[in-house]
Amino acid sequence: MKFLTLAKVRPGAWSKLENDLPAACYEGMKSAYVTYGQYDLVFEWEAKDIDAANKIMKHMAGSDLFTSETLVVASTLKEFGKLQ
């Protein structure tokens, strides 16, 4: 399973982000980007199943460093284009 998490960093949390984000949040992490616009960060990550994804999400939410919205990646654009 692939996910994208769009995050807004809470005021004063930037300096804590690297050290205070629980190690469990890094499980399956493929990349993390600082972005400009509505969201401050975008995390690209994977989990083997929904239980593993829920565990990671619980740690992200419990960190209280950011608010987030997570999207399940259905397919790549190329894969989607091949559907009949």
TrEMBL record:
Gene3D superfamilies attached to this UniProt entry: 3.30.70.920
Record protein name field: GYD family protein
